[in-house]
Specification:
The complex is a heterodimer of chains A (about 210) and B (about 120).
Chain A lengths: L2 H9 L15 H30 L9 H4 L2 H27 L2 H31 L8 H34 L3 H30 L3
Helix pairs in contact in A: 2-6, 2-7, 4-5, 4-7, 5-6, 6-7
Chain B lengths: L21 H23 L8 H20 L9 H31 L3 H8 L1
Helix pairs in contact in B: 1-2
Classes of the chains: A mainly alpha (about 210), B mainly alpha (about 120).
């Protein structure tokens, strides 16, 4: 923030400072906004997968339909894992803002465990489907299903790898502003995955006919 | 809402330390659990008129996405967040174009396509 804006902020109501006098945004805001744009573009990519699934979900080529393949209780368990991990991830972000190292480790570890539980449920589901001959090459419906749900699973896997990297960075670098920004972006990423999952359960699993 | 450390706007998620903190996540979890349970119930119930179930599911999903945006990502209508909200609106617009556009075009092509048996007869 430049000197003019500083003096304006000090003297008058802060809201009155014109945008042009406020100076460049802080790195935290820039990083957060840039990452937000990335997340939105990622959601647009998921939108294309959703569109492909919506178009192809009826094209089973005589193979099994979604209603025959999906196990709703497993999907419910997956949803609970992901929802709980979103909250623990938020707690870890709050702990990192306080600079509480132990709580950050603890909540990140819980987030990792819940994410890994989600992923193992999903891998078991995929393995079960492939073993009964309902792999991605069976029909257009199953190709679209594995592309969409697999893309989400790949994001969760990358998120878990990122989480481990962040644990290592907190351990070695401490709570430097740079590390805090990365933790903050990680939390945004993890919450965004949860939003995509809401779309997946509604359109893929609950909408299955 | 402006202070010396945040001269220009808020990053998405930045509201966490100013608006509620831990409580915000727990309230969000409560709403999200209720909406998830309602979605699973709606998908397997016979109480609701069956053709309207997809509409109900869509409404519940949109509500849950809103809950996630507000309580987990801390997106709000505060003036500091104008950039974030504008980007979000544009993202929703593009997703809607892609999804509904694909469905419309593919349904139209499907409708105009000659049935497969007729097509095979013509090739003989």
């Amino acid at each position: 923030m430049n000197a003019i804006a500083q003096s304006l902020t000090d003297s008058a109501e802060p809201e009155r400072v014109p945008l042009s006098l406020r100076g460049p945004a802080s790195p935290r805001v820039v990083a957060g906004f840039g990452f937000w744009l990335f997340l939105l573009s990622d959601i647009v990519m998921f939108g294309a997968f959703f569109a492909a699934y919506a178009v192809l979900s009826g094209e089973t080529a005589g193979g099994p339909t979604g209603a025959e393949l999906f196990d709703k209780s497993r999907v419910f368990a997956e949803t609970l894992c992901l929802l709980a991990s979103s909250v623990t991830c938020g707690f870890s972000a709050l702990a990192a803002q306080r600079g509480d190292r132990f709580a950050t480790y603890l909540w990140l570890a819980v987030t990792f465990a819940l994410g890994a539980a989600f992923l193992s449920l999903e891998v078991a589901e995929f393995a079960g489907m492939v073993s009964v001959g309902a792999g991605p090459s069976r029909s257009a419906f199953l190709s679209a299903f594995f592309a969409l749900v697999g893309a989400h699973g790949a994001h969760v896997t990358l998120g878990l790898a990122w989480l481990v990297v962040m644990l290592a960075q907190v351990a070695t670098l401490g709570f430097q502003p740079m590390v805090r920004r990365r933790l903050f972006c990680f939390a945004l990423f993890w919450h965004a995955l949860d939003i995509v999952w809401v779309g997946v359960i509604t359109i893929v699993y609950l909408g299955a006919r | 809402m402006l202070d010396a450390s945040e001269p220009q706007g808020e990053a998405p998620g930045d509201g966490a330390h100013t608006h509620g903190g831990r409580r915000s996540y727990l309230i969000g979890l409560g709403y999200a659990l209720a909406l998830t349970a309602a979605s699973f119930w709606a998908s397997s119930t016979s109480v609701v008129y069956p053709p309207s179930v997809p509409v109900l599911l869509a409404v519940l999903a949109i509500a849950q996405m809103g809950v996630h945006l507000v309580f987990f990502l801390h997106i709000s209508s505060a003036p500091d967040q104008a950039n974030n909200v504008l980007a979000l609106v544009f993202g929703i617009f593009v997703v809607a174009l892609v999804v509904f556009g694909s469905l419309l075009i593919m349904a139209n092509l499907n409708h105009n396509m000659m049935p497969m048996d007729r097509l095979l007869q013509m090739q003989r």
